[in-house]
Every structure is written in structure tokens, then in C-alpha cells.
Design a protein that fits this description.
Layout: H1 15-40, H2 42-49, H3 55-77, H4 81-102, H5 112-133, E1 159-164, E2 170-175, E3 178-180, E4 183-189, H6 193-200, E5 203-208, E6 220-226, H7 229-242, H8 246-257, H9 259-262, E7 265-272, E8 289-290
Parallel strand pairs: 2-8
Antiparallel strand pairs: 1-2, 1-5, 3-4, 4-7, 5-6, 6-7
Helix pairs in contact: 1-2, 1-3, 3-4, 4-5, 7-8
Transmembrane segments: 18-40, 61-91, 111-129
InterPro entries: F420H2_bilvrd_red/Heme_oxyg, PPOX_F420-dep_Rv2061_put, Split_barrel_FMN-bd
GO cellular component, one term: cytosol
Length: 294
């Protein structure tokens, strides 16, 4: 499997990243398995552990184990500590509320599930507020940006990348982006339309946009350059760190499955052009054709 197609923790970098991530993932899966066992088969779980059987206490042990498991798994892929803790607690406390509802005959109070459920709603609200403040990006982003033109894109989840046909007509596509220093990186199928257009004319424009490609801010003119070697691998690692599931797993897998049709993965470095007159500058354009692509 080529470096562009590496999936999961291996895409994150050297041993200092990969080994802790693997420990977190394995530990999280073990906790999820144990928690699921306690929730679904409490009598069997109690017999295995050698403790006296009480359905509610075994169920709660399962809920807390699942909460810990979710926290461990998210810690392997999310960079924001607050989001990780809130999401893990939300999972465990929500199951705790469900357990109190289904175990009322074993004890407790009728208001227990409601109080715990309200607590989960508050935690969910806090998590949504936190994620919105992060631009819905919980992965790792650059801490040093040397280009003022790229600063607004550091936590931007999706950008509209506009490339130009030979006759100057613009074609836009929503893509993920990661910023590193004085440049940004994006990924695309190597034989896709945008790569063919960029090979002919490296001048592109990027603008913040929604997931569907609707621009939400002004465009910045950039120069695109196809990468190879160490810089290609560096771009892939940065994308995987910012988008752990999307570009650590899903997009590399999709590109690998579609390689026969769309070619190998291409990584692009985008640098701001500013006021420099680039070669092959496209004409002014009143509108942009839209393409949904990653």
C-alpha cells in the first residue's frame, strides 16, 4: 500500500504519534467490548468477574466503561482535550441515564433518568458550542502561519477550490484544506478534472465554503503545484491530522478503490499570489461552475 493510501494511525507520522495512538485505540476497543458485555449480558459479566450479581450496578459499570472507551478512541484522533472529554462523558452519562430508566424495578428514584438525561443535554450543548468554536474541526491544525492570506483557512473545514478551463471558464469544487506555514495543501484524485485543469494552468482561487460548495467568504488567488516525494507524504500526514477519519481513513480508502478510474492520489501545495501577475492568468469570471468533489 502506497504512502498516499495509508489508513489510520500509520498516516499520522512516526513512532511518537503512531504508538500512543495504537495504545489508545486498542485500549478503547477493549473498554467498549467490556462495557457492551456488561450492558447486554450483565449476569454473564458478573459471573466472569467473580462479583455478586446486581443488574443495575453491572449495567452502570458497562456505561462507565463505554464512556471511557469512547474517550480513549477520540483521544487518538481529536486534538482538542475539551471536546474529547465532553464527548466521552456524554456517551457514558447518556447510557447511565438509560440504565436508570430500565432498572427502576431494581431500585433508585423515578426522577433519576430525567436528571441524568438533562445533564447529558447540557453536556451535548457544551460540546456543540465547543465544536462550533473549533470550526467543526477537532483534529490538529497549524500553530504557526506565516501568510496573512492563509490565516482565515487554518480552521476552515472546507474550501471552494476554483480551477480554470483552457478558455478561462471557472470550475469550483469543495475540498478539504490544511495550512502549514506559508502554504496550504489539498488532495484530489490524480486523473480528476481539477488536476487536468491545474496542469494546464496553475492559477486557482480558494474561498471558504459550506460542505456543499457554497462560498461564504472572499476568494484568494493562489498558485497550485503538484507534489511528490517527501513533500507529498508531508501533505498527507497534515491532512490526516486535521481530518483523522476523513483523510486518515475514508478518503485514502475511496481513492484506492477508485484508482483504476481516477488514478493515484494527487497532493497540491497552494501559495498566495498576492499582486504578482501569474503566467496564464484567467480572465475575470462572473460565475463559477460547481463540482462536488473531495
Amino acid at each position: 500500500m502506497g504512502s498516499a493510501d495509508r489508513i489510520g494511525p500509520a498516516a499520522m507520522g512516526g513512532p511518537s504519534r503512531a504508538f500512543p495512538a495504537m495504545v489508545l485505540i486498542v485500549s478503547g476497543l477493549v473498554m467498549l467490548a467490556g462495557g457492551g458485555w456488561a450492558e447486554l449480558a450483565p449476569r454473564s459479566f458478573a459471573a466472569f468477574t467473580g462479583f455478586a450479581y446486581h443488574p443495575h450496578f453491572v449495567h452502570d459499570a458497562g456505561a462507565f466503561s463505554i464512556g471511557i472507551g469512547v474517550t480513549l478512541l477520540l483521544a487518538a484522533v481529536w486534538a482538542d482535550v475539551v471536546a474529547v472529554v465532553l464527548a466521552g462523558f456524554l456517551a457514558g452519562n447518556s447510557l447511565h441515564a438509560v440504565n436508570h430508566a430500565i432498572d427502576l424495578e431494581a431500585g433508585g428514584h423515578g426522577w433519576d433518568p430525567w436528571v441524568l438525561g438533562m445533564g447529558s443535554l447540557v453536556v451535548l450543548a457544551a460540546l456543540l458550542v465547543r465544536m462550533r468554536g473549533l470550526g467543526w474541526v477537532a483534529g490538529e491544525v497549524a500553530t504557526t502561519v506565516t501568510s496573512a492570506a492563509l490565516a482565515p483557512f487554518v480552521r476552515q473545514k472546507t474550501i471552494l477550490l476554483t480551477s480554470f478551463r483552457r478558455d478561462g471558464r471557472p470550475v469550483g469544487a469543495p475540498v478539504s484544506v490544511v495550512v502549514d506555514g506559508d502554504r496550504a495543501y489539498v488532495r484530489s484524485p490524480g486523473e480528476g478534472g481539477k488536476i487536468k485543469r491545474i496542469r494546464n494552468n496553475p492559477v486557482v482561487e480558494i474561498a471558504p465554503c459550506t460542505g456543499s460548495g457554497r462560498a461564504t467568504g472572499p476568494a484568494v488567488r493562489m498558485s497550485a503545484r503538484l507534489l511528490d516525494g517527501a513533500e507529498f507524504r508531508h501533505a498527507g500526514r497534515l491532512l490526516a491530522r486535521k481530518y483523522p477519519m476523513l483523510h486518515g481513513v475514508l478518503v485514502p480508502l475511496a481513492h484506492r478503490l477508485g484508482r483504476a478510474r481516477f488514478g493515484r492520489t494527487a497532493h497540491l501545495a497552494l501559495t498566495p499570489l498576492g499582486d504578482r501577475p501569474p503566467t496564464g492568468e484567467p480572465p475575470a469570471h462572473p460565475g463559477t461552475e460547481s463540482r462536488t468533489a473531495r
